[in-house]
Design goal:
296 residues, alpha/beta, Arginase, Chain A, two-stranded antiparallel sheet, 8 helices, 17% strand, globular
């Protein structure tokens, strides 16, 4: 989509009929949640293509059932609006992150639950800043194959490899919960063990153990598709073997439904890398689960 009105909330053309996520309402005002795209892959360090993730996730969602047997809910039970992609300045990570921060801030001001589609993981820093500003007591759940805790990557502080370090430096590492991590430097793993709530390799079981301490707090969930084993989601820039399977992913989403989730994003889906479309279809199913888990 080409742009937004002055408030940054709706398509410029009210008759916009581009690709939207299955079941999305055309009534922004009635929507409880807003899906928006973050078409950015300016700092990827291996294989590019994640800027095309939001569009393709929407396109393949037409093949996904609206009913979730995992949550026993149907998309027809809730109201959500698909705003299209946030216009980003190509190749400029700083201005792109700022644009995403401003957009998601406007969604919070409109009392909408934001659900972002990425896009490289650095893009999450904008929405996370907006969530923290809106909810000072925020906790962050980071589900990923990579620690993303470097202070810089090859001299660049703005990178998909540094996003969670920025979150930790902002809200404090004691409010960050990391699950499924199985790749990073020795220093990153040690720093995580010393500072964050760090649960490498697995997601559902450790998440179940910490639910009680997360209840009562606003929670932002940032989910990198590469937490999945590449057997299930090969379409991502930096695939890492040894990941979780879809059953564990859906169980984790069911557990997350017990929390007060105030924001969610699904990152790093790279359609050009996966002609089978398995990654994009799984991404669409995870977005369905997120909608049904978090929209009350």
């Amino acid at each position: 989509m080409s742009g937004f009105d002055g408030q940054g909330l709706r398509p410029l053309d009210p008759a916009y009929s581009g690709n939207v996520f299955i079941g999305a309402t055309e009534d922004f005002g009635a929507a409880q949640a807003v899906i928006y795209g973050m078409p950015m892959d300016w700092t990827v360090s291996f294989r590019s293509g994640t800027r095309l993730g939001p569009t393709r996730i929407r396109e393949v969602s037409v093949g996904v059932e609206e009913y979730s047997p995992y949550l026993d809910r149907d998309l027809s039970d809730i109201r959500y609006f698909d705003a299209g992609d946030v216009p980003l300045p190509f190749g400029n990570p700083e201005k792109s992150v700022e644009a995403l921060y401003r957009y998601v801030k406007s969604l919070y001001e409109a009392e909408k639950l934001p659900l972002g589609l990425g896009g490289e993981h650095l893009a999450s820093w904008g929405p996370l800043r907006a969530a923290w500003e809106r909810h000072p007591d925020l906790r962050v759940i980071h589900i990923d194959a990579h620690a993303d805790l470097r202070e810089n990557y090859e001299g660049e502080p703005l990178s998909h490899a540094t996003v969670m370090r920025k979150v930790c430096d902002g809200i404090g590492p004691d409010r960050v919960y990391q699950f499924g991590i199985r790749s990073g430097t020795r220093d990153e793993f040690q720093w995580a063990r010393d500072h964050t709530h760090f649960f490498p390799f697995d997601v559902a079981d450790p998440l179940r153990r910490v639910l009680s301490e997360l209840r009562g707090h606003p929670v932002y969930v940032t989910w990198d598709i590469d937490v999945m084993d590449p057997a299930y989601a090969p379409g991502t820039g930096t695939a890492e073997h040894g990941g979780i399977d879809p059953r564990e992913a859906f169980e984790a989403m069911r557990l997350l439904s017990e929390l007060n989730v105030v924001g969610f994003d699904l990152m790093e889906v790279a359609p050009p890398i996966d002609p089978s479309e398995l990654s994009q279809i799984l991404g669409a199913k995870l977005v369905r689960e997120a909608l049904l888990a978090f929209v009350r």
